[in-house]
Design goal:
Layout: H1 5-23, H2 43-56, E1 64-69, E2 74-79, E3 84-90, E4 98-100, E5 103-107, E6 111-116, E7 122-127, E8 132-139, E9 142-149, E10 156-163, E11 166-173, E12 181-183, E13 186-191, E14 195-200, E15 206-211, E16 219-223, E17 226-231, E18 234-237, E19 286-289, E20 292-294, E21 300-302, E22 307-311, E23 314-318, E24 325-330, E25 335-341, E26 344-349, E27 354-358, E28 364-368, E29 374-378, H3 393-404, H4 412-423, H5 428-439, H6 445-455, H7 462-469, H8 484-494, H9 500-508, H10 517-527, H11 533-543, H12 550-566, H13 572-579, H14 586-622, H15 642-649, H16 653-661, E30 669-677, E31 680-687, H17 692-700, E32 713-720
Antiparallel strand pairs: 1-2, 1-29, 2-3, 4-5, 5-6, 6-7, 8-9, 9-10, 10-11, 12-13, 13-14, 14-15, 16-17, 17-18, 19-22, 20-21, 22-23, 23-24, 25-26, 26-27, 27-28, 30-31, 30-32
Helix pairs in contact: 3-4, 4-6, 5-6, 5-7, 7-8, 8-10, 10-12, 11-12, 12-14, 13-14
Length: 722
């Protein structure tokens, strides 16, 4: 049939109009979805985005959980509301299941498959062409999922929307895509780290685009009537302020910059994962669980003010502000999934069981036994239970202690977290608990060491520390030596001098472990009690030639320096014995020689000072005005000398030697400063001060010779032990 040119032109215009209706944005000159030419942060577009979010209203949280069993692999659905299993069917999943509205999405070797959440009936199967399933979301019958391959500039992705059982549209993206969601009549897709695109669910055209310059958008989340975007670094609510290109505004929610066991993230980092998590991945047993909630028009927080840490069999409820612990729960089996809900945490374990922990109490509100080994569960945000009451400090402390004492080697990082929070508890019983952990050699070494180290920072519970130090190793009693080294450090940190005699008793006890000796010597020195000098001297002389092991040698190396600090020149004879004993340990002898050199230098300086004083006295005497020639019969000395003082004190020599020998600490010499006038003692000053009361009366009891010096005479006299 022939068509006239005029009719043909009309026909062509009609066809073009139909094409325009089909493509809409292309005819209007708007770039296709995810095009680099689409404008960012356009105010009118952002308004459309917010209007559609508001029109979508609040979505009631679902109550159906899904899980994947161990081989033979099956996918099953469980209703938390009725606490009953809904369905079970065989699958060949290569990814974890993903809850997406009324659909559960999984990936197989060849396709992405969707199943009805309540019946388990197949809904769709879409070939993925070898691309990995990155994430999925949904609202009712609408299901969106993202596929991806490659990393960085080589990344290629595809976003696919399914309505019911049919593919509504597919859109290619020349970049990495995050986890999308559906909000009413639009699909929100994070991509290329900085972008969030709103795509019309009917046409597949882009409605609005947000670009942020101060953060990362990898996830779009819908919770009740709000939409949130963010990444492992933080999350914010989608409001008008996001149009400014700022993610980290007043409503930006982050967690403390502190590594938790297993290093779980606020949201998993989809941009660094080349493949989806397999259903049997061990990572399903580690995670952070939280549910966003609005605090006010701007700020957001976390439901029940809790963030839940899952670590294999452990669950910690932590404050999102500072990670302070609210409670800890120890489960019988590894958890393979969990979800924060109003009132607490719903979880599934590797036996297929499902339970609920109260947000405030951490107690098991309800528990439904499973039907077999399960590798992963995805749980909804509805169908939970009550929050309960917060545990008392006593109950919390008992739970932390039990967690730290668990024998599962995989849980060591979580057990260390329990020790850390136990050490922060401001009561004396927590100190006793830490001592018990430090004292238990059956625990994993990191846990044992952490408890011992935590004792040094305690400022309460000293009586428990002293009680522990009273214990000694005894065969008949069936007791072992306590962790003396750690207890000694704690006593020194607290300045607890009541521990000194107890530590000295352990120093003399052969049952004390060698590894505790060095910290014990260091702590005795820090406590600064001079009464420990003699026991340390005895220990050094007893063991310096008998280095049983390296720990004993380390302790011996510390003693010479301690004696210098505590005894001064009195320690010289002891150090000489050790330094020149050819049978002694070479390292210990070297330390003794260094200490001896220090003391000898101090002694030489003291003697030089005395000589200077003596010369000054003689110079002062020589400078006195000349007196008339003495009467030949007057044989008085011109001034007091050391020899004259020796003669004057000769009658009380034995008593003065007794003063040196009976001193509280070993004393080998004493300095006595005398002021004498006309044979009478006006002042006596004795160093060390401990000898003043013994030496002064004896010196004053003696008559000193009268000299021809008419002024007061000052003389320094050294009293040496014979």
């Amino acid at each position: 049939m022939r068509v006239s040119p005029k009719l043909g032109a009309r026909f062509g215009c009609a066809c073009a109009a139909l094409v325009c209706l089909a493509t809409l944005s292309a005819c209007a000159g708007t770039p296709p979805a995810f095009s680099t030419r689409y404008p960012d942060n356009r105010e009118a577009d952002i308004e459309v985005l917010l209007q559609r979010i508001e029109a979508a209203g609040s979505r009631e949280p679902g109550t159906v959980a899904v899980g994947v069993t161990a081989a033979p692999m099956q996918l099953f659905g469980f209703d938390l509301a009725t606490k009953s299993e809904l369905w079970r069917r065989p699958v060949a999943a290569v990814s974890e299941p993903m809850l997406a509205g009324d659909t559960v999405v999984i990936a197989t070797d060849s396709a992405v498959e969707g199943y009805d959440l309540r019946s388990g009936n197949p809904r769709f199967s879409v070939s993925h062409g070898g691309r990995a399933l990155r994430g999925a979301g949904g609202d009712g019958q609408l299901t969106v999922f993202a596929l991806g391959e490659g990393m960085g500039t080589f990344a290629r992705s595809e976003v696919i929307l399914v309505r019911g059982g049919s593919t509504a549209w597919r859109r290619d993206v020349e970049s990495q895509v995050g986890v999308p969601t559906v909000v009413g009549s639009q699909v929100l897709v994070p991509w290329s780290n900085q972008y969030l695109s709103a795509i019309d669910a009917v046409t597949g055209n882009e409605l609005a685009r947000v670009r942020v310059r101060d953060g990362v958008i990898s996830h779009a989340l819908r919770d009740r009537g709000n939409v949130y975007v963010g990444s492992q670094h933080g999350v914010t609510r989608v409001t008008a302020s996001i149009g400014s290109g700022t993610l980290k505004g007043a409503g930006y929610l982050t967690l403390p910059a502190e590594d938790l066991p297993g290093r779980p993230l606020l949201l998993f980092d989809v941009y660094t994962q080349s493949t989806a998590q397999r259903p049997d991945s061990a990572r399903h047993s580690i995670g952070l669980e939280w549910q966003p909630t609005t605090v006010d028009a701007i700020r957001i927080g976390m439901q029940d003010d809790n963030v839940y840490l899952r670590f294999y069999r452990m669950v910690f409820a932590l404050s999102p502000k500072d990670y302070s612990v609210r409670w800890v729960h120890m489960h019988d089996h590894d958890l393979v999934g969990a979800r924060a809900q109003p009132g607490g945490l719903v979880f599934g374990d590797q036996t297929g069981s499902i339970g609920f922990l109260g947000a405030q109490s951490g107690e098991l509100t309800w528990h439904q036994k499973g039907k077999g080994p399960t590798t992963v569960m995805k749980l909804p945000r509805g169908g939970g239970g009550g929050a309960g009451n917060a545990p008392s400090e006593t109950a919390l402390r008992s739970r932390l202690l039990a967690a730290a004492q668990d024998t599962d080697a995989r849980l060591v990082p979580g057990r260390l977290l329990a020790v850390k929070h136990l050490s922060r508890m401001p009561d004396a019983e927590a100190t006793a608990n830490l001592i018990a952990l430090c004292d238990d050699d059956r625990l994993a070494p990191p846990v044992n060491k952490a408890a011992c180290a935590a004792l040094r920072d305690r400022t309460i519970g000293e009586d428990h520390l002293l009680t522990a130090l009273e214990r000694h190793a005894g065969y008949l009693e069936g007791t072992s030596s306590p962790p003396v080294g750690a207890l000694a450090r704690a006593a020194a940190a607290q300045g607890e001098k009541r521990a000194v005699p107890l530590l000295l008793a352990h120093l003399k006890d052969p049952g004390t472990r060698s590894r505790d000796l060095a910290p014990m010597v260091q702590s005795l020195l820090l406590l600064g009690d001079r009464s420990v000098a003699e026991p340390l001297s005895d220990f050094l002389q007893l063991y310096h030639a008998d280095p049983i092991d390296e720990d004993l040698v380390k302790a011996l190396e510390l003693i010479p320096h301690a004696l210098v600090k505590l005894s001064g020149p009195v320690a010289i004879p002891v150090l000489e014995n050790v330094a020149y004993d050819e049978l002694g340990s070479f390292v210990v002898r070297q330390k003794a020689r260094i200490a001896l050199g220090m003391l000898q230098e101090q002694q030489r300086a003291a003697e030089a000072s005395e000589a200077k004083d003596q010369r000054q006295q003689e110079a002062d005497a020589a400078a006195e005005p000349r007196k008339p020639a003495p009467n030949p019969a007057d044989f008085r000395p011109t001034h007091l000398t050391t020899e004259l003082v020796n003669n004057a004190l000769l009658p009380v020599r034995d008593e003065l030697q007794g003063c040196l020998k009976k001193a509280p600490k070993p004393v080998y010499q004493s300095r006595v400063v005398l002021v004498v006038e006309d044979g009478q003692v006006l002042m006596v000053s004795v160093l060390p001060k401990e000898l003043q009361g013994c030496v002064e009366p004896l010196v004053r009891s003696q008559q000193f010779p009268r000299t021809r010096n008419i002024k007061k005479e000052r003389l320094t006299y050294t009293l040496k032990r014979l």
